[in-house]
Amino acid sequence: MPAVTYLEAIRLALWEEMERDPNVFCIGEDIGIYGGAFKVTDGFIDRFGAERVIDTPIAESAIVGAAYGASLTGLRPVAEFQFMDFIACAFNQIVNVLAKSHYRWGAPAPLVLRGPSGGGVHGGPFHSQNPEMWFVKTPGLKVVCPATPADAYGLMKSAIRDNNPVIFFEHKFLYRRIKEELPNGGGDFTVPLGRARQARAGRDLSVITYAAMVHVALEAAEALAAEGIEVEVLDLRTVLPLDREAIAETVRKTSRAIILHEDTLTGGLAGEIAAIINEEAFDWLDAPISRIAALDTPVPFSPPLEHAFLPKVEDVVREARRLRAW
Amino acid sequence: MKKRPASKARHNGASRPAAGRNGQRPADQERRYRIPDWRLERPQFHVTQKRTEAGEVRYSFTGDLDLAPPPIRESGYLTREKSIELYRWMLLNRRMEQTLETLYKQSKVVGGVYFGLGQEACSCASALALGDGDWFAPMIRNQGALLVRGFHPRDVMMQYMAKADSPTHGKDGTSHYGDIAQRNMVSPISMLGDLIPILTGVALGARLQGRNIAALTWIGDGGQSTGVTHEGLNFAAVQKLGLVLIVENNLWAYSTPTEMQFAIEDLAERAIGYGVPGMIVDGTDACQVFDATLEAVQRAHRGEGPTLIEAKMMRMKGHAIHDAAGYVPPEMLEFWRKRDPIARFEKHLLGKKWLTPAQNRELIAEVERQVDEDRTLAEASPMPDPAQAPKGVYCDPGCHPITLKYGGVKPARRGGAKLKQSEAALHFR
Predict the structure, then answer these.
(1) In angstroms, rounded to a whole number, what is the distance separating the alpha carbons of residues B217 and B127?
(2) Pairing relation of β-strands B278-282 and B307-312?
(3) Which residues, in sequence order, are bridge partners of residue A143?
(4) Distances (CA, A) of A131 to A215, A307, A312
(5) How crowded is residue A47: how many other Cβ atoms within 10 Å of its Cβ?
(6) CA distance A10 to A26
(7) Which of A47, A71, A142 sits opposite B417 (nearest CB)?
(8) CATH topology for A4-186?
(9) Cα–Cα distances in Å, from A135 out to A88, A123, A140, B334, B386?
C-alpha cells in the first residue's frame, strides 16, 4: 500500500467507517458537493448520497445539536467544523448538552466532532487556534489530537465506534505535509483512545507532547542525539482522558521532563501534566519540570509574529541542555 | 383595543407561509402572509417602565382588562373520552405542583421549585397530541407533559428532592431527565433554545432510518430570543424535519416583559421568516392547543416539515418559588386568573354534559389520592450513596447498548464512486 498523507488517512478512515456501518453519517458546512473546506469529504456525497453527507446552514450550534439528536436515535454522526476555532460557536451544546448527557440522564452520545486546528499556516487569530483545553476541562468528553497518519486513521475509527462524544482535533499544518504507509497493509485497524505512544525511545530526558509538536520534538531529539543527549518522545495522542501511566513511566525512566504543546502556556495541558508527574513520579525527578508552549497571546497573523508565537525546535534543544546540566 | 381583521391577513412583505421558494408568488407587488389566530378573544397589553412619584422605576400596565373570559373553542378532534383524559392530566399536573410547593415549605426539596400554574392546558394538551413513536423535550414549565407521556408524579417529586430512585438517581434535579428507550424524551438543560436543534436532529435521525416523526418542544417568550432558537428552527425548515415548536408566550421572562424581549406583535410572525406555517392559539384553551398541535404532528408525519405555534397565556407564579413576582402588575394576574385553564375546561366539560358534577368530584378525589400515594413513595426513597458521585461520566463498554430506534439506516441508491485522492485545498499550504 502506498504512503498516505495525514489528510488522506482521515478520509480513508471516515470512508471505510461509512462503508462498514450505514448508521455513520457526516454533517457540516460545505461538506457535500464541495467536499469540505479542506476536501476531507471530497467525493463522499457521490458514494453515500445527500442523506448521509448533509450540508447545513452556517450554524454550528444547530450542527452539534442535530448531530446529538440523531445520535439519540442510535446513529453515529460525524460533524465537521470548517475550522476548530468555530467550535466556540457551539460551545454550549458541547459542554452542557453532550458532555453531561450520560452522567445526568444515562443517554450515550456516540458522535464525533472533527475539524482542522493549529497554526503554522498563517491563518491568523481565528483560523489557527488549538482550543482543546476548552474541552479538556469538561468531564464527559473525549479529546483526541493525532500526530501521524496512522494514528489519525486508527483514532478516527475508534472515535466513531466509541459511545461517547469525541472531539477530534486534526492538525491542518500536518494535513498534506506528512505521509506514511499505514500498518496492516491497508487493512482495518484501530488505535485505542486514551493511550499514549512512544514516538522515540531515549534514556536522558522525556519530551511529553502531542499533535504537530511531536514532529518538533522528534527534530529536536535528532539534534540532541548528536550531542549525546538521548531524548524520549511521548506522543499523548488522546488528551482526555490522559494516559497517566505512560506519563509516569517515561518520567520514572528518564528523570527529566519537558512538556511541549502548541496551545498557549497559561491553563495549557502542561500544567496538568506537571501535576500528574508531581503525583506519580516526584521521587524520580532529577531536575525541575519544564514547560514549552505558545505565547499567552492570540495567534498572530504575520509570519514573523506567528513564528515568534509558536514553540520551536531550538526551544526544545535549549531546555533539554538546561535540564541535562541541572 | 386595537382592531384588526378577523382573518389577520398580513401585508408586510413576501408570500405564503408554507410555500417557501417553490410556491407561486402573487402577481401584485404586495406579498401576503397568513397567521391563523384561533383565539376567541384578542386582548392587548402594554407594559412599560415608568418612574413613580416616589422616584422608583416600576412596570406600568395598560390593557384590555374588562373582557369577559371567552368560551372554549370546540375541538375538531377531541372525543368525550379523550377530553376527560386531558382534563385529568391537567388536574394531576396542578395537584402535583401544589404538593411540590408543600414539600418545599417542609424543606424537603433541594433547591427551588418551578411551576406551570396557568399553563397546564398548553403542557398537557400538546403532549397528548403526540403519537406513540413521536419525541418530546419539555421545558421547566411543562411538567404536565411528563405525566402525559408516562412518568409518574413521584418521579418529578423525587427529582426535586434529589432522591436515589429519581430518574437521574440524584445526578440532576427538576424536570431535567429523559428516556430514550420507552418514552422518547430528551432531557432538557437549563440553557434556553438548545432543545430546538436537538429535537430537529432526533427527527433527522428518524428520517434517515425511514420514519417521519414529530418532535415536540416548547420555548418561552424569553427563550426564543436565543441564537440557537434561530439556528434550530431554520435548520428544521431547510431540511423539512418534523419539529413542532410551541412558543409559550406567558408574558414574563423571569422579570422581563415581552415589550423588552421582541419588537414584533406576535411571536407567531417569526414563522414567516423561516418559511414555515405559524399560528396563534389561546394557551389557556386546551382544545385549541390540542387541535393545533395535532395538525402540526400530522404535518410532521406527512414529511411536510416544522410548525411554529404561539400559545398565549400568563405565568401565574414567579419565575421559581423564591420569586414573589412583585414586579407583575396585579391587575394582569387578576385578568388571567379568570382564564384559569383548568376551570375553563371543567366548565366546558360540565356544560357539554361530558362530565357530571359527581364524576368530576370523583375524578378530583382520585387524582388527589394518586398524588398522595406518590408523595409517600417519593419521600420514602433514600438519598443517593455518595459512592455514586464519580460514576457514569462515560458510557463504558457494556454500560448502555446503542439502540437504533427505527431499525437503522438502509443505504439505498449508493453511488458507485470509489475513494480517490482528494483535490488539494486552495488555502493554507
Answers:
(1) 9
(2) parallel
(3) A167, A240
(4) 19, 19, 19
(5) 18
(6) 13
(7) A47
(8) Rossmann fold (3.40.50)
(9) 10, 22, 9, 49, 26
pLDDT score recorded for residue A283: 98
| A69–B204 CB contact, under 8 Å | yes
For A108, the closest chain B residue by CA position comes to B395
Q: Cell 373520552 sits at which residue?
A: B81
Q: Which of A127, A171, A215, A261 is catalytic?
A: A127
Note the pLDDT tens digit of each residue in A131-142: 999 999 999 999
A127 as an active site residue: the answer is: yes
pLDDT of residue B414: 72
Distance from CA of B13 to the nearest CA of A (A): 23
pLDDT confidence bin for B24, thresholds 50/70/90: low
Residues counted in chain A: 326
Contact across the interface for B235 and A49, Cβ inside 8 Å = no
Which residues of chain A form CATH 3.40.50.920? 197-324
| Residue ranges matching CATH 3.40.50.970 in chain A | 4-186
DSSP B372-416: HHHHHHHHHSPPPPGGGTTTTSS--TTT-----TTS-----S---
Task: Give the C-alpha separation, B58 to B328, whole Å.
Answer: 9
For residue B179, give the 3-state DSSP assignment.
strand
Within 8 A by CB and 6+ apart from A127, the residues are: A83, A85, A121, B428
Exposure letters A150-187 (e unless 16+ CB within 10 A, then b):
bbbbbbbbbbbbbbbbbbbbbbbbbbbbbeeebeeeee
Helix (H) or strand (E) holding B113: none
Distance CA(B33)–CA(A69), nearest Å, equals: 31
pLDDT(B16) > 90:
no
Mutate to test the interface with B, among A105, A122, A190 (most CBs of B within 10 A): A105
Residue with more model confidence, B13 or A263: A263
- What is the distance between the alpha carbons of residues B144 and B165, in angstroms, rounded to a whole number? 20
Scan residues 230-269 of B and list those with Cβ closer than 8 Å to A: 231-232, 234-235, 238-239
* Between B25 and B254, residue with greater pLDDT: B254
CA distance A51 to B411: 9
Domains and CATH numbers, chain B: 79-384 (3.40.50.970)
What is the phi/psi pair of residue A55, to 5°? -80, 135
Residues B380-423 have pLDDT tens digits of 999 999 999 999 999 998 888 899 999 999 876 677 788 888 76
Residue B397 burial by Cβ neighbours in a 10 Å radius (0-12, 13-18, 19+): exposed
Q: Do B334 and B63 touch, CB atoms closer than 8 A?
A: no
The pLDDT value given to residue A250: 98
Residues contacting A231, CB < 8 A, separation 6+? A200, A202, A204, A205, A206, A207, A217, A220, A221, A224, A225, A320
The pLDDT value given to residue B2: 43
Backbone phi, psi, residue B66, to 5°: -95, 0
- Rounded to whole angstroms, what are the CA distances from A272 to A136, A137, A279, A283, B362? 10, 10, 11, 18, 64
Would you call A67 and B172 a contact, using CB atoms and an 8 Å cutoff? no
**Angle at the Cα of A288 from the Cα atoms of A282 and A294, rounded to 5 degrees:** 120
Q: What is the dihedral of CA A247, A249, A251, A254, to 10 degrees?
A: -140
Q: At B365, which amino acid appears?
A: A
Portion of chain B with pLDDT greater than 90, in percent: 84
CB-based contact A235:A218 (threshold 8 Å): no
CA distances from B362 to A74, A162, B261, B358, B369 (A): 44, 53, 43, 6, 10
DSSP E strands: which ranges in chain A? 4-5, 24-28, 53-55, 76-80, 112-117, 142-144, 166-171, 179-180, 197-200, 205-209, 231-235, 238-240, 257-264, 290-294
Question: What are the respective helix, strand and coil percentages of chain B, to the nearest 5?
Answer: 35, 15, 50
Domain A197-324 fold is Rossmann fold (3.40.50)
